[in-house]
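Posted in: Structural Biology > Protein-Ligand Complexes

Title: Requesting predicted complex, uridine-5'-diphosphate-glucuronic acid in pocket

I'd be grateful if someone could produce the 3D structure tokens for the following input. Sequence and ligand are given below.
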Amino acid sequence: MIKSKINKIKTICCIGAGYVGGPTMAVIADKCPKIKVEVVDLNFERISRWNADDFKKIPIYEPGLFEIVKRCRGKNLFFSNEIKEKIKIADMIFVSVNTPTKEKGIGAGKASDLKWVEACARQIAKYAQGHTIVVEKSTLPVRTAEVIKEILEASQSSTSSYRKATFDVLSNPEFLAEGNAIQDLINPDRILIGGDNIHAMNSLTDIYKQWVSKDKILHTNIWSSELAKLTANAFLAQRISSINSIGALCEATGADVREVARAIGSDSRIGSKFLDSGPGFGGSCFKKDILNLVYLSEYFGLKEVATFWNSVVDLNNWHQKRISNLITKKLFGTLSNKKILILGFAFKANTNDTRESAAIQICQNLLDEGANLFIHDPKVEKSQIEKDLGLTPLNEKTDFRELNSSWTFVKDLSESFWDTDAVVVLTEWKEYTKLNWKEASSKMRKPAWVFDARSILLPEQIKKQNLNFWRVGDGFN
Ligand code: NAD
Ligand code: UGA
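-- Reply #1 --
Done. Output follows.
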């Protein structure tokens, strides 16, 4: 018997206060003031940052997020480590934990590691009371809901009569893109709800209906919903590998990838979005979700399907390597004792997230060639770059010329061009479009290069300052 109708959804619990859990729950709290939203996480530091007195210190940088948290926190939005207590009181629980690629065992390197999801299911099974709707918000392989259901059902048969716990499981994948998360959440292209109990699906629909029009809320069966999420990411990533492959061809033939993208993008069947050639896609999800799709295809004996999707990741890896090789070649085949200024470390602009950022691989390749990197990013912290590169930074005052394979964190961009052999733009932060190249050039060591892997600089502005210029996919370089 389903007792959860929307008027009874008074308390939501979200397990996982990360890039999805935090912003998603903030928007739900903002749009549904009558619902109490409890976000829990086992990471103490993350939660204490969500509760920081200075709202600018919340752990995730996302335009518009801090204002919402400021409005709702302490009213109907709460962050805590009280996982057990909040599961107990929740009518609906969103599972929003990480699902990275498995590192060991069966499916290592491809399949998703579901240990965090399973741990959540076990905690819910243990502590939930009454009827609870469990919502998969994390991106999961097809048929994960079955695993969750099995764990929950096992607890149902063993719960004592005083704690009658019953459950529904829904799939409600998240399609937000980092850097634009709040806009995507407030005005989504669609909300996808997969399930087999229409009452539970309607309970979740009623929450979204507070701000999303009903025609954008799609109901499907649970497996279609799980697979649609993986497919959406695979299609998006595939477009990037496609345009980056054409970019390489443009460089070889004298064509320009921006012109090609504009020409094909005006075909309404192709569409103009997601055709920007760059340093290769990054982010925590594209690669892991495609590899997951590859694993599933292999598991079901669909070798050709697996090979097709794997090539999207292969092309991306090749493209990143191609960019670092090209930089080395242009700098006379050696980067020893040279200073390279890296502009941007986040995997895209408007986020502090560096997971799978193309910058990590490209910087590592340049360090392997002996370069001394000076790395700037407006939002990524020094400690994060240190973790990603696995290398301690130099003190800003150290004389790098005698060194090889070092990196230094740049706080003040204006001072960082001195003696630089090359500048490499890896993230499309707006502030990099406003640099004064006349002044920069006067400080750089000649012959000097500017490499624009994001197409955000104006070639003529750079070239007229006695600087060599390369940009991705530009056959006129
Ligand atoms: P994240 O790593 O930023 O956050 C996950 C959080 O879950 C962490 O803070 C971790 O401490 C917490 N956690 C793990 N196990 C827990 C447990 N048992 N109890 C309590 N807390 C626990 O990850 P994310 O980027 O928010 O991604 C979460 C999921 O959403 C992934 O499946 C991802 O594929 C999917 N997704 C991510 C994005 C994105 O833009 N990042 C977009 C759409 C979907
Ligand atoms: C992506 C999807 O866009 C979201 O719909 C999805 O919810 C999310 O993954 C997820 O499941 O995690 P995200 O990774 O945050 O979002 O950011 P994108 O805007 O998709 O960019 C991904 C990468 O592709 C970035 O490195 C970006 O710079 C690159 N990119 C994007 C390009 O190189 N060219 C483009 O035209 C677009």
